[in-house]
Amino acid sequence: MRFDYQKWKGPKPGDDAFMKQLMEIYRNLLLQTGGDVDEALRWMEHFGKEYGFFSDEFSLEDFKRLLEDSGEASRTPQGFAMTPKGERRIRQDSLNEIFSTLRAGGAGDHRTPVAGAGGERLSETRRWQFGDDLSNLDALASMNNAVKRSGIDELMLAEDDLEIYEQEHLSACATVLMVDISHSMILYGEDRSTPAKKIALALSQLIQTRYPKDTLDVVLFGDDAVQVPLGELMKIQAGPYHTNTKAGLQLAARILAGRKGVNKQVFMITDGKPSAIREYGRLYKNPFGLDPKIVNKTLEEAAYMRRKRISITTFMLAVDAPLLEFVRKLTELNQGRIYETDPQNVGAYVFRDFVRNRRKRLH
């Protein structure tokens, strides 16, 4: 993710809009620094001087006090630290940003017009049966039935006139988000790891607030694969690693093996080819081209996950023909899905697919 800065021409200090934009800059810097508040504030000071959004009227010290007063950061003997409230706000902002790219009511909109235990309301209706929840009543269709049966002059609503909306039952869903942290994720001045981090934070917030029966686990894969606690998402950083996609898929499969009676899916965000596998305790790596040995071992893992009814959806950030061919082959073997996209819109695709996968049983 790339930010272009210019001289501050926004609202003046003291305006609500000014504070909102200033907080957006701070939170984006916080994502860039892996949750390091002191480093984010140093960048705020640098940009404030260069682009003129700090002044005698509203200084960096005033901004620091604002962070403390709002509860988003606290002073410690070692410096400033992000609070749980600050982390929640980052997650919610990430969620709001991604949802703002989805058209309200479209394929990725999770909001439902009803509350209750069933699921999401569908457009189809059926006749009411004893025990059905009347909160799902289609009043217009019910009245139309009554008019057709008794006429407008002697209108009387009967039990047989009642129609209710069908509901789609949403089974629990277990999701593993695999994030590539190899060196290619930050090559050529293009930060692809921050958008992936933002997606993980947003998914975490979505599940915790709206789908508490769902689970989300995050797996990072470079030379090896590691599961990251949700509380550590802010610290995700790409490093000088190769891409051991096989290890990431293996770890994801082990995690999902412990989830019983739910839909199981893997979302893999990557921009690079598989360039390493672990054999006999040693890392076999080949960063040049597509090594047949590494490719075949990785494809075998995708086929195994299909047999375990684990769907893989790959969000491909590269456009190189050989790499796309590899991912398409992996998708074919797993009978999963692939989105050939870029860091700026991958979040919308992730959320659309998350919704779709919750609405059907994967086979």
Description of the molecule:
A hairpin with a 2-residue loop joins strand 9 and strand 10 (282-285). Helix 1 (16-32) crosses helix 2 (37-51), helix 4 packs across helix 6 (193-210) and helix 6 (193-210) packs parallel to helix 10. The model is unreliable at 103-119 (pLDDT under 50). The strands form four sheets. A six-stranded mixed β-sheet has the order 7-6-5-8-11-12, with helices on both faces. The chain is built from ten helices and twelve strands. With 363 residues, the chain is of the alpha/beta class.
- Order of helix and strand elements from N to C terminus: HHHEEHEHEEHEEHEEEHEHEH
Task: Assign the structural class, choosing from mainly alpha, mainly beta, alpha/beta, alpha+beta, or little secondary structure.
Answer: alpha/beta
Radius of gyration: 25 Å
Q: Which consecutive residue ranges, at least 5 long each, have pLDDT under 50?
A: 103-119
Strand content: 15-25%
Main beta-sheet annotation? 6 strands, mixed
Within the largest sheet, what's the order of strands? 7-6-5-8-11-12
The mean pLDDT is 79
Oligomer: single chain
Note the main attributes of this structure.
363 residues, alpha/beta, six-stranded mixed beta sheet, two-stranded antiparallel ribbon, 10 helices, 12 strands, 40% helix
Structure, briefly:
The protein is α/β, with parallel strands linked by helices and 363 residues long.
